[in-house]
Design a protein that fits this description.
Pfam families: Acetyltransf_1. Keywords: Acyltransferase, Transferase. By secondary structure, the protein is α+β, with helices and mostly antiparallel strands. The protein is built from 5 helices and 7 strands. The chain has a 7-stranded mixed sheet, with helices on both faces. β4, α4 and β5 form a beta-alpha-beta unit. The protein is globular. The two termini are 32 Å apart.
């Protein structure tokens, strides 16, 4: 693989993010806003008017980015933007606090960041790019004051799962990166946590 850099998705990189996600907004017109919006506000991918699918989601991500928020990180290689990871303070992801399967045991725990999504174009998958994005997310969270980075990977033991089902990453990936894995206190989901040492 060529040299890869991991960069914050800042306002000046909006065009790169838009082009990477393409006309379908990454997964099913989500534009990586599923965890950032209440269920009633998230635009379904099944709208009868195809031109309107995901429009509100895209506008939400665009607004966040152009307002100076950093909703995630972009990977770049010599061909341009090639991958994405959504990482931010856990409080930014409103749907986590309302989820029956992912609700934090202690929603007021300070300094917790969450990693909720990876997106790689199909031709970029299975080349180690996801692990590079994970390393970049760990470093970005650490340098921005996170005490803990939390994620919600899928266990793929027993066979591969479709890419759309492992957008949160795999258990194996987080194990390799040194995360501690445990069962969620209310569901059968896996929670991966990494204590971050800040300078």
């Amino acid at each position: 693989m060529s040299i890869v850099s991991i960069e914050p998705a800042t306002a000046e990189r909006w065009d790169d993010l838009e082009n990477l996600f393409g006309p379908t907004g990454a997964y099913g017109h989500c534009w990586c806003t599923f965890f950032r919006r209440r269920a009633k506000d998230h635009t379904a991918s099944t709208s009868c008017d195809r031109s309107m699918r995901g429009v509100d989601n895209k506008e939400e991500l665009r607004r966040l980015t152009l307002d100076g928020r950093v909703p995630g990180l972009l990977a770049y290689d010599d061909e341009g933007p090639c991958g994405w990871v959504s990482v931010a303070p856990r409080d930014d992801f409103i749907r986590l606090s309302r989820s029956r399967s992912l609700r934090p045991a202690d929603p007021d725990e300070p300094g917790v960041w969450a990693l909720v999504c990876f997106w790689l174009p199909p031709r970029r998958r299975r080349r180690g790019l996801g692990s590079r994005l994970l390393d970049g997310a760990v470093e970005y969270a650490r340098t921005n004051g996170a005490r803990v980075l939390e994620a919600y990977p899928v266990d793929t033991v027993g066979g591969r799962a479709p890419s759309a089902e492992v957008y949160t990453g795999t258990v194996e990936m987080f194990q390799r990166a040194g995360f501690t894995l445990s069962g969620h206190h209310l569901s059968e989901r896996v929670v991966a946590r990494l204590e971050l040492k800040t300078e």
